[in-house]
Every structure is written in C-alpha cells, then in structure tokens.
Amino acid sequence: MRFIFHYLAWLNAADGIVSFVGLQLRLIEEGNLMMRILYEYNPYLFLACKLTLSAILLPFVLYKGYFSSKFLKITACSASFVYTIIFVLHGIWIILALPI
Q: Where are the transmembrane segments (predicted)?
C-alpha cells in the first residue's frame, strides 16, 4: 500500500507540473472546473495546490503500519489506475498540440 500512495503522490505532482506547463503554453485547457477557476485566478496558486495535494499523501507513504481497510486499498488502487490513464492522456494531448 505504501507504494500506491507513493505512486499517487508523485503522479499527482508530475501531472500538476505538466498541466501547468501545458496551460502556460496554451497547449491544453483545464477540464476540472474548480482547477480551471483556480488557474485563471492565479496560475502559481494552481501549481501550489496540486503540489500540496501531493504532499498530503506523503504521511501515508511514511506510515509504517498496516493498511487494513479494504475500502482504502480498493480506493487507492482504483485512483492509481484511473489517474495513470488521465496522466497518459494529458501527455498525448500535449504532444499532439506541440507545433512540429
């Protein structure tokens, strides 16, 4: 389980940075309404929020106890799977939007 939380934290941070760059270069648009509003208000606040959300996952990485909740395990694994797909799609969209 620690691996899953570690993976989610890094994936979220990477997605935040890639999204920030893509938005700054006007290669992509933010699909999440709340994050779009935050980006339009202040792009650096958007990035800080994404990185803070990653940092919130770190205590789960450092936790040495057993994660006994089946719900938590299923939720974390499902989130990892879905977020991986989203991250890959973001990367594809940015690559396709780059001028050749």
A: 7-25, 45-63, 75-98
**Nearby residues of 24 by Cβ (< 8 Å), 6 or more positions away:** 43
Contacts for 84 with CB less than 8 Å, ≥ 6 apart = 11
Cα gap 57→10, rounded to integer Å: 9
CB 54 within 8 A of CB 10: yes
**Domain, as residue range, for 37:** 2-97
How does pLDDT run across 28-53, given as a tens digit for each residue? 888 889 999 999 999 999 999 999 98
Going by C-beta distance under 8 Å and a sequence separation of 6 or more, which residues neighbour residue 29? 23, 36
Cβ-contact 20, 93 below 8 angstroms: no
Query: Please, what is the Cα angle at 34 between 97 and 80, to 5 degrees?
Result: 70
pTM: 0.80
